[in-house]
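Ops channel
N.P.: pipeline sanity check, posting one input/output pair.
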């Protein structure tokens, strides 16, 4: 029975993505924005999570010297975020069906030299990012411009048919996938070949796998994986984030992060705080380009 439900779900999803794929390029923004805001209404629980997260983070963000938010109203920021999510969904649907490849060529990349310098060291590169802007576009653009496949660390979808669909799209654009159930071993294999790894590091980690840090003014658990892998292998960790500017996408790459040699729990936590700060700074500068609907602070609310 579960297999039938999964098949029905992916069939409906496939038809929806196909319909969005053939929307004229000039209608991506209005149709995507409408779709995203409609989704915010239909999935009211997620919208409430986003509004509450923004409300609690606003005091920290508005006092930050890099604050660049278009509004200080949590409801309005959430509406704008869902608008951006909808546009990203439509853009990704086009890519699922082999359309919109020209969009990848129009993306501006700033700080490209940081990735080139890190790659030249010959020990692989972890491109550290988060659920920022259209992160699927970023994951497909960077390896195309660099002429080198990227292995993206991802969670396997519960629906195997949906997982196959997403996997096929990513592989069609030259990327590889590292699933989390055996991620460390596979990451080290890629690193030994001086490869690129894309790692989304902005979701709540389990305490056994993470370090307790400050994020947007609240305690949060963050994964230790980038720090531990970098220390073990000597690979470079380069933060990179994508956001929207008017009618285009911009990827900003930052200098390679420098971690300490302190192997104590406190030393590792400081390095985790270090990379988390780059994500935090992005959110402050581009608050409507971050995925506020996930429960980033779970398991740390009372700490």
């Amino acid at each position: 029975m579960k297999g039938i439900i999964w098949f029905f779900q992916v069939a409906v999803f496939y038809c929806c993505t196909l319909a969005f794929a053939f929307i004229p390029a000039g209608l991506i923004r209005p149709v995507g924005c409408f779709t995203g805001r409609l989704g915010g209404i239909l999935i009211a629980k997620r919208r409430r999570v986003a509004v509450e997260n923004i409300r609690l983070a606003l005091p920290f963000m508005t006092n930050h010297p890099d604050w660049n938010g278009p509004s200080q109203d949590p409801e309005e920021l959430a509406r704008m975020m869902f608008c951006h999510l909808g546009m990203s969904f439509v853009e990704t649907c086009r890519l699922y069906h082999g359309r919109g490849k020209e969009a990848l060529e129009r993306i501006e990349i700033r700080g490209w030299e940081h990735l080139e310098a890190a790659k030249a060291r010959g020990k692989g590169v972890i491109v550290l990012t988060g659920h920022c802007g259209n992160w699927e576009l970023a994951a497909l653009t960077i390896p195309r411009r660099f002429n080198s496949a990227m292995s993206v660390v991802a969670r396997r979808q519960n629906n195997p048919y949906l997982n196959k669909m997403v996997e096929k799209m990513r592989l069609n654009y030259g990327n590889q996938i590292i699933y989390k159930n055996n991620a460390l071993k596979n990451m080290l294999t890629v690193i030994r070949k001086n490869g690129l790894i894309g790692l989304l590091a902005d979701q709540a980690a389990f305490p056994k796998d993470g370090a307790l840090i400050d994020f947007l003014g609240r305690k949060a658990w963050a994964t230790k994986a980038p720090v531990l892998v970098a220390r073990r292998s000597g690979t470079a960790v380069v933060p990179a984030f994508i956001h929207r500017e008017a009618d285009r996408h911009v990827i900003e790459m930052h200098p390679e992060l420098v971690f300490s040699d302190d192997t104590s729990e406190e030393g590792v936590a400081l390095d985790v705080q270090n990379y988390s700060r780059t994500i935090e700074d992005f959110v402050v500068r581009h608050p409507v380009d971050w995925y506020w609907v996930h429960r980033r602070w779970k398991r740390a609310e009372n700490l």
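N.P.: looks fine end to end. The two ends are 42 Å apart (CA to CA).
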